[in-house]
Amino acid sequence: MGKMKVKDFNLEYTLECGQIFRINRVDSWYYVNAQDKFFKINQVGNEITFHGVDKEFIIHFFSLNENLSKILKEIDKDKYIRKSIDRYRGLRIIKQDPWECLISFICSSASNIPRIKSKIKALSESFGNKISLDGVSDYTFPAPGKINDYKKVLNAKTGFRAKYIFEANNSLNIKNLNSLRTQSYNNAKNELKKINGVGDKVADCVLLFSLGFYQAIPVDTWIKKTMQLLYFDNATISNEKIREFGLDYFGTYAGYAQQYLFMLSRNDMGTTSRLQLWKNGMLEE
Question: Residue 181, Cβ neighbours under 10 Å: how many?
């Protein structure tokens, strides 16, 4: 077992904010799959305990070497984001494997979290390798080139996404994806969008959650409603305008702002009507 003290880190918020899907909570422990890694981790106060990976992996994966206070100070622009920061301080952007992140968010199109998790689990069971930790078994996520049976991809209930997954498997490698880190945000995004099944939202998820582009703002239905209500007087605004506003307003760490606003609006407000009451000062939470 490894142990370490942490500052400005909340394990639950980080793992439960929709940026990663291969997690399972058992009592006080989270069991986490990350490509070919399988580990468990928990947090009590400012101390985390983990097993299955080393300290260096934990620091990198959870971005613990980054100055979160500085990041949050930079995005603290108004009462809405400030409330989000106060409520969910410690949420950090995970550094995922870009291949697993890409396939995961291709699976996310027109789906919900339980179904996304089911699809990814089925793909891992069909094409990955069995791995165990303390008597708990799971599967590694298959590397590019290993998702090589189209019928099995369909059997994973991937539906219309099957052809995109199979095509990506046959045309991409880790080197391709990692090379995007050195490109500009716009160039990297345009390269990702050349992959069939990858639109703006999926591309921004991959850029934000695996390639280190913290200015990326994935716009889903919920964050669109939230941003329109809080910043555009509930007018209907295009996703592109929301991204442009977010980057201009919040700056380099706009993706962090999006995650914090998403957590507050989804978990604390629940509905846009409740969010409207809060905006108007008629609701404390």
Answer: 13
How many domains in the chain? 2
Confidence of residue 271 (pLDDT cuts 50, 70, 90): low
Query: In the predicted model, what is the mean pLDDT of the chain?
Result: 92
Q: What range defines the domain where residue 58 resides? A: 2-66
- Flag whether 221 is in a domain: no
User: What's phi and psi for 250, nearest 5 deg?
Assistant: -95, -20
> Which of 210, 238, 262 is the last residue before a domain boundary?
210
- Domain final position from 188, 210, 232: 210
- Give the global pTM: 0.92
